[in-house]
Automatic annotation (TrEMBL):
The lineage of its organism: Bacteria, Pseudomonadati, Pseudomonadota, Alphaproteobacteria, Acetobacterales. This is tRNA(Ile)-lysidine synthase TilS/MesJ. InterPro entries: Rossmann-like_a/b/a_fold (IPR014729). SUPFAM superfamilies: Adenine nucleotide alpha hydrolases-like.
Length: 400
């Protein structure tokens, strides 16, 4: 009599035109979906077939089936839907490059594609604080040289967090020609206020006078009533929406006001992932990307020196200051904002080199298609889409 173990699990084989790979389930409770996610196989790229005892192959309709329900199967075959090599971009196969000039504070995965040879190399590069700062300096210095000339004046939005701190460090070390720098920070919201001491410390280190806009000044510039709590009023007026939407609007308006006094360019700390997420949103909405890394909004020019600098590298410039900023953050509940940032992070993590090529390609689309920025007396420049009359009225009541 042949005895079959009740605990036996079917073998799982990924079948491609480039070969086969055996994958072992962790236990009976693991589902097929969990298995392919664990080993990095895209669920949309495979069709799963179960091999019955009589040898017949049957298409598995659900990836949610646990392996405990597949004891009658001798093997599960995962057929890759295209004749490509999925292992070519396997980021779990990488070489290591150690950090130089000090202990490692961050790391970044670099991807080198040789299309002629048909090879892809992944390098996990450890980064010291010195290396992170030098990379940011290189990116920012190249940005200034390519886009501006001697005598340019910049108003730099400072938050006390990693992005604006690294940007300030890089801009103050620029020496190809003379530029003027005026760092500005806003008060009036708890996490803004908490960043002031950090921003003051950094500006002192670089011999700069930090312009602190007190809450009363911010309200006057932005046209906000002084007799109401801004966050609570916003949450009551726009339930379920993140305050960050209003915060970004207020920062843009206040910095534009400061820049107008001196004919300056406004610099903010949008980084590589910010730009990538924005581009994905625009394209998914059927619109060309907005201009970057320099953008004209009404009479003010905005510049994004960190547009090609990943956040992991920026954080390595001032790890302690970045940590302080992270601990002050509040949750984001906007499904759209969550979606496009997660799309950006996923693309960047799986195909780091190609994500950079995508952003550079998006920039070319801007040059060819132009912007579709709308103008509003209430909101100023509207970057993404029109605003309904009902939303405009609510916003008017919020601002008083």
């Amino acid at each position: 009599m042949k005895v079959t173990s009740l605990n036996r699990l079917p073998s799982v084989t990924l079948v491609t035109t480039h070969g086969r790979m055996t994958i072992e389930p962790l236990n009976q409770r693991e589902t097929l979906f969990e298995l392919i996610a664990r080993v990095g196989i895209p669920w949309s790229a495979i069709s799963a077939f179960s091999s019955r005892p009589d040898g017949e192959l049957v298409l598995l309709p659900s990836l949610d089936a646990p392996f405990s329900s597949m004891r009658d199967s001798s093997e599960i075959l995962l057929h890759f839907n295209r004749n490509v090599n999925p292992d070519l971009f396997n980021i779990q196969k990488y070489d290591i490059a150690k950090a130089e000039d000090g202990p490692e504070v961050s790391s970044y995965l670099y991807q080198q594609i040789d299309n002629d040879a048909g090879t892809v190399q992944h390098i996990l590069k450890g980064l010291s604080q010195t290396e992170c700062q030098e990379l940011v300096r290189q990116h920012v210095h190249n940005f200034i040289t390519e886009n501006f000339s001697a005598g340019t004046s910049f108003v730099i939005g400072i938050s006390g967090g990693g992005d604006s701190n690294a940007m300030l460090m890089a801009m103050t070390s620029f020496d190809a020609f003379d530029i003027s720098i005026q760092p500005v920070i806003l008060k009036g919201v708890a996490d803004w206020d908490a960043g002031v001491p950090r921003a003051q410390e950094l500006c002192r280190n670089y011999g700069l006078d930090l312009r602190v806009l007190e809450e009363t000044e911010v309200r006057d510039i932005c046209g906000i009533r002084h007799d109401r709590d801004l966050i609570h009023t916003y949450e009551a007026s726009f339930p379920g929406d993140d305050f960050e939407f209003l915060g970004t609007f207020l920062i843009r308006r206040a910095l534009s006001h400061m820049a107008a006094k001196t004919g300056s360019i406004v610099c903010t700390g949008l980084n590589f992932e910010d730009i990538l997420a924005e581009c994905l949103y625009r394209v998914c909405s059927g619109k060309p990307p907005l201009s970057f890394p320099v953008r004209q909004l009404r009479s003010t020019r905005f510049a994004y020196p960190l547009w090609m600098t990943p956040k992991k590298i920026i954080d390595g410039c001032f790890p302690k200051l970045s940590l302080d900023n992270y601990e002050m953050r509040y949750p984001c509940f906007s499904a759209g904002r969550n979606l496009y940032y997660m799309m950006a992070y996923t693309l960047q993590s799986k195909f780091p080199g190609s994500a950079e090529r995508l952003v550079k390609g998006m920039r070319e689309l801007v040059d060819k298609r132009g912007n579709d920025i709308q103008e509003s007396d209430i909101f100023g420049a509207i970057l993404n889409e029109g605003v309904s009359l009902e939303v405009s009225e609510r916003f008017n009541r919020l601002m008083g």
